[in-house]
Design brief:
By secondary structure, the chain is α/β, with parallel strands linked by helices. Helix content is 49%, strand content 11%. Bound molecules: (S)-3-Hydroxyhexanoyl-CoA.
């Protein structure tokens, strides 16, 4: 037996250790070796019981997710864990599962096949498969309700959220919590139960509910899935599978589960979500900033500007336990900013997200200041003042004067040139963009903008910091709007063009919401404030090419004082609770403006709305990729899912285009080019990939190969004209 699974003996107890770093996934070879170890201990008369434990930092994080792609492409045979789990459950001697770290997916299914489960009090257990677009496929939907009851099993399988070992113990999923040495506790527990009848999870039925109680549980779960996981198939399949546990025998239930599992596994949604799972980890890898790059300490920070963004950013640091100085120019503004922070925390306490004690502790970490006096003590500053180059440069010149050498000077700019900002300091290597998304304390995305001179240590520190802050950091290059907002421009432009051509405001938003987006582009504009873009456009008007069609709706609405939700009027009108309704006045105005501009009106289908808006993202994304402002197509996908409400189950705009087929996307873009002119010129990279029958995913693979070499080990410097970041 090789090292994937080791068997040793602690006197009369066998210890079976799963050792498949980093997370003990059940990769090929692991189940077979666990099975052999069970046989070995059953065949040894000196052994009374077995403990199964994970080596390293965790129990078992589930099936090996990399295998799923191989199975669906036919490169690898379908493997089932069910026989192993039955083998464990039918073992003549009791098996105790000892859990630390995580028992997720197939890991929890493995644990439930044991006769007992004990866990470190810090462990977590869960069936997160729905997050990968699949459902538990090794009896999880059948054994879990038998241990925790139908209500909790439906919740865990359909929502995929982990539960703590403490909660699992109260649910009956964990038999004992261990505070100290888990293995010692497990071995002594195994001795306690050795020789006694060993309970088999699959034979238990007492928690499976009744025909009177269960339908309401499944009905409520389906309603909740329809709202909270709109558009996703796996949660509904998970509910069906748990329902099967309440209606069928264990064996038939497992067959029903297997059928649903396979349907999900082969779906586009699962492929997209697995792409995102690996993508979220891939974005942390930067070719010329290897993981050994030294990072700087960030133990104390300052935020300049206490507005919506600055206040939110201060909360992000405080939530991670990092003390923050929050600076503004006068008492009244600062008081307003702190008031908003208090209100935000209070509403989280009210909704049960935080305790009052947590809120008090976090507020203690935020110190309002009016001067730079204490800035010499901080390791990093995030500037979040109004979006204007002169103001930002003035702030950075101040920071250069007051901050110690070695401190990171970051700007939260969403549009401005980070090199120009860095030019106001004597240390451009310390300057970087940290573009948080609004509301900063909620949105997961952090675009980290690499300036020409940003040092590798500063980049590595910000990437690592993003994890600590609970964000997903994506490194982007310094172009106008960076990656996310640069793509959002054409997307919103198309939404407006569609309205000018005859579509209704609500129809455009609705079509994109039905596509899966969290919000439509026009409602998003109202939420963010239409005046923000209007002011930026006014600043940049001199850069616009003449003779190219520009949308007029938003600017004209702003000229009428319709700034969106903040003025209760924008694309929609709002009541005092900011509930939106269609505004006939807007329709009348738009029709008149379109007539004045001589734009012919027509019926526009939902399919065209989606193609125009989503392919505008894809086309711009392809340009960004080719210009080297994003490292990989998957980086763009991660940005769009975490910062712009793009549906994760479509894998992001670039993956979505791959799924549709780049040839088809390219042809459609060519049609738009013919109909609507220069703005739709196809991106050369898209054209090349489409003509070669390739995908963005293949482009990514080639990029990675070029950057690291075939062994993905040695980081090579970016070549001229390829990676710009
Ligand atoms: C399943 O079990 C289906 C069953 O019903 C059976 C059906 C037959 N496989 O996240 P990290 C890699 S479905 C392969 O950075 P952390 C990951 O890519 C599965 N690889 O660490 C990364 O690689 P790299 C259900 C995996 O400490 C490295 O491990 N289970 C797997 O922040 C470290 O990961 C899940 O959905 C895997 N299962 O978080 C759990 N898991 O270094 C998925 C991780 O090359 N995993 N890797 O980039 C997780 O949630 C987190 O990884 C975990 C650790 C919390 C465990």
């Amino acid at each position: 037996m090789n090292d994937l699974v080791r068997i040793t003996a602690d006197n009369d107890v066998a210890v079976i250790t799963i050792d498949n770093p980093p997370v003990n996934a059940l990769s090929p070879g692991v189940p077979e070796r666990i099975s052999a170890a069970i046989d070995q201990m059953n065949g040894d008369s000196a052994i009374k019981a077995a403990v199964v434990i994970g080596g390293g930092r965790t129990f078992v994080a589930g099936a090996d997710i990399k295998e799923f792609g191989k199975m669906t492409s036919g490169a690898s045979p379908r493997r089932s864990l069910l026989p192993l789990l039955l083998h464990i459950e039918d073992s003549g001697k009791p098996v105790v599962m000892a859990i630390h770290g995580n028992a997720f997916g197939g890991g929890l299914e493995l644990a439930m096949a044991g006769h007992y489960r004990i866990a470190s009090s810090t462990a977590q257990v869960g069936q997160p498969e729905v997050k990968l677009g699949i459902i538990p496929g090794a009896g999880g939907t059948q054994r879990l309700p038998r241990l925790v009851g139908v209500l909790k099993a439906v919740e865990m399988c359909a929502e995929g959220k982990p539960v703590s070992a403490r909660e699992a113990a109260t649910l009956g999923l964990i038999d004992r919590l261990i505070e100290g040495d888990l293995l010692a506790g497990a071995v002594s527990f195994a001795r306690e139960i050795a020789g006694k009848p060993a309970p088999k999870t699959r034979e238990r039925t007492e928690k499976l509910g009744t025909a009177t109680e269960n339908p309401a549980i499944f009905g409520a779960a389906r309603d909740a899935a329809g709202k909270k996981q709109r558009g996703m198939k796996a949660p509904l399949a998970a509910i069906d599978a748990v329902e099967a546990a309440t209606r069928l025998s264990f064996e038939e239930g497992c067959q029903a589960e297997a059928k649903l599992f396979t349907e999900c596994l082969f779906s586009d949604q699962s492929k997209a979500l697995i792409h995102i799972f690996f993508g979220e980890r891939e974005v942390a890898k930067i070719p010329d900033v290897p993981k050994e790059t030294p990072v700087l300490p960030v133990n104390r920070v300052a935020v300049v500007g206490s507005g919506t963004m600055g206040g939110g950013i201060a909360m992000v640091f405080a939530n991670a336990g990092i003390p923050v100085l929050l600076k503004d120019v006068d008492e009244a503004t600062l008081e307003l900013g702190i008031g908003k922070i208090r209100k935000n925390y209070a509403s989280s306490v009210q909704r049960g997200r935080f305790t009052q004690a947590f809120m008090d502790e976090r507020l203690q970490l935020i110190t309002p200041v009016l001067t730079y006096d204490d800035f010499s003590t901080v390791d990093m500053v995030v500037e979040a003042v109004f979006e204007g180059m002169e103001l930002k440069r003035a702030v950075f010149a101040d920071l250069d004067r007051v901050c110690r050498r070695g401190a990171i000077l970051a700007s939260n700019t969403s549009t401005l040139n980070i090199d120009e900002i860095a030019g106001a300091t004597s240390r451009p290597e310390a300057v970087i963009g940290t573009h948080f998304f609004s509301p900063a304390n909620v949105m997961r995305l952090l675009e980290i903008v690499r300036g020409k001179k940003s040092s590798k240590e500063v980049i590595a520190t910000c990437m690592q910091l993003s994890k600590k802050l609970g964000k997903i950091g994506v490194l982007v290059g310094n172009c106008r709007g960076f990656v996310g907002n640069r793509m959002f421009g054409p997307y919103r432009r198309e939404a407006q063009f569609l309205i000018e051509e005859g579509a209704d405001v609500e129809r455009v938003d609705q079509a994109l919401v039905e596509f899966g987006n969290a919000m439509g582009p026009l409602a998003t504009g109202d939420l963010a404030g239409l005046d923000v873009g209007w002011r930026i456009r006014k600043e940049y008007r001199h850069l616009e090419k003449t003779g190219i069609r520009q949308p007029f709706g938003e600017d004209r609405l702003c000229e009428l004082g319709r700034y969106g939700q903040k003025t209760l009027k924008g694309w929609y009108r709002y009541d005092e609770n900011r509930r939106a309704s269609a505004d006939p006045e807007v329709t009348t105005l738009l029709r008149k403006w379109s007539a004045d501009a001589g734009i012919p009106q027509r019926q526009i289908s939902d399919a065209e709305i989606v193609d125009r808006c989503v392919y505008a993202l894809v086309n711009e994304g392809a340009r960004i990729l080719e210009e080297g402002y994003a490292l990989r197509a998957v980086d763009i996908d991660i940005i769009y899912i975490n910062g712009y409400g793009f549906p994760a189950y479509r894998g992001g705009p670039m993956w979505h285009a791959d799924t549709v087929g780049l040839q088809r996307v390219y042809e459609r873009i060519c049609e738009f080019h013919q109909q609507h002119g220069e703005l739709w010129a196809p991106a050369p990279l898209l054209q090349r990939l489409a003509e070669a029958g390739k995908t963005f995913a293949e482009f990514d693979k080639a990029q990675v190969m070029a950057a690291y070499g075939p062994n993905l080990q040695e980081a090579a410097p970016a070549t001229e004209g390829s990676l710009r970041i």
